[in-house]
Amino acid sequence: MHDLYHELINLAESDNYPFHMPGHKRNTMSTPFEGAFRCDITEIDGFDNLHDESGLILDAEKRANKLYGAKETFFLVNGSTCGVLSAVSAAVPMGGTILAARGSHKALYHAAYIRNLDIKYLPYKINSKFEIPEAYTAEDVRPYLSKDIAAVFITSPTYEGKSSDIAEISKLCHENNIPLIVDAAHGAHFGFGNTNNTDKKEKSSTDYTFVPESAVTQGADIVIHSVHKTLPSMTQTALIHINGELIDKELVKRYLRIYQSSSPSYILMASIEQCMEEMEKNGTEYIDKLLNYRNYISEETSALKNIYIPGPDEIDDPCKVLITDASGTMTGQQIYDILRTEYALQLEMAGTRTALAIITGSDTKEGIERLIKALKNIDKKIEEAKKSNIDGKSGNLFENSNIAEIVRIRDIPPYKMKLSKAWDAKSEVVSIDKACGRISAEFINLYPPGIPIIVPGEVLTEEIVSEIKNCNDKNLNLQGIINIDKKQGAEIGVKVIVDF
Known about the structure:
Elements: H1 4-12, H2 34-37, H3 56-68, E1 72-76, H4 79-91, E2 97-100, H5 106-115, E3 118-121, E4 126-127, E5 132-133, H6 138-141, E6 149-155, H7 166-175, E7 180-183, E8 222-225, H8 227-230, E9 238-242, H9 249-259, H10 266-301, E10 307-308, E11 320-325, H11 332-343, E12 349-350, E13 354-358, H12 365-387, H13 419-422, E14 427-431, E15 444-446, E16 451-454, H14 462-473, E17 478-479, E18 482-483, E19 492-497
Parallel strand pairs: 2-3, 2-6, 6-7, 7-8
Antiparallel strand pairs: 1-9, 4-5, 8-9, 10-11, 11-13, 12-13, 14-19, 15-16, 15-17, 18-19
């Protein structure tokens, strides 16, 4: 077969000697990564060029494009981050304005910094039951569209598996001649399986019967997919899809050349190609396996008294297994830590109320069984702890938990300085206890997925300070805080702008 993967294998098995980069020279004796290194090359004759495709890579991109149904598709080897940077740069002029959800990935903010953009925010919607970002509807977006908006940026599905109404939002944007960018990094599997007529299917409240429709076929102008997140492909591999006439394809390609490595990995590109081939041939079976695993988890845990896993009526994406303690006895971080340290099960992330496991069609039955068994054991431990508890807690969903102490930010902090100016401003580190009222000079993100609590140029309000302190107390992974000398009166500090 004449494709990138097989041509790499043919080259590896030939007597062609590499007097070119990379430095390992495809010498399998020089590295433990034998299978990978023997196919790791640069842009040599006959192997095309990602930044000026005309042969093997172009053919592979066309096959991916046909699979997803976009106008045009490009391979990304710098992840969806590169795709978001390129999409925003191409869609919004320097100094322009973009409308985005507050819970957007940090790549959106980095694009705004690089391009000196203003960000107008959609309302900060939070699912109060699980304390996760909510999906958006067209009616959420409508009041915020104005003539100065150059593009709308929506994350769907979210990290936790909530899907926005992309079809209606896309329609609304196009009525106003505004392009819609969808960060669907976690939705590369959407649209596969028996989902051609999802609009005719009724969603079950208990079983996942299909995956949602892809943002590509719902009319979004640019869609970014991380194929490595939920499909069988290597880390960093992603796709960017272009639709419609509102986006200049040549501008997108220009920014891909800027933000993407000039030495793209052929192994990563071959991984994308092979992933697309696998989904083309066996996509339905892959999705069916995912759905069966997800429904099996629900069936086996539905009778648990404390551990609760929301189903399709609450979480749209079957890949996302959101685990929470309905009694409020354990935080998401505690569930995450117990699964890792006591059961050798490494989850994706922990939030205040939930721990997130990601499953795909590449999981094994043995792995799924281990997760179920661990959750049953944890549920028993929670029940035993409740019986021995004498402080009068009611056991209602989160009502009596220490999680309730965490202030959840729903209002956007006051904005005093443009991001591109604030991030470059002269700054100093102050104790978090002395930060209230100061202007932040740094992002503070909960990671993963990298959603900001505070953005440079925004005011550190009392609520924001409380959020940061409480997340730190719960040992959640905060980026942007600074450890300072305890003698100064606090364990953590934050960067604030000087003389403003």
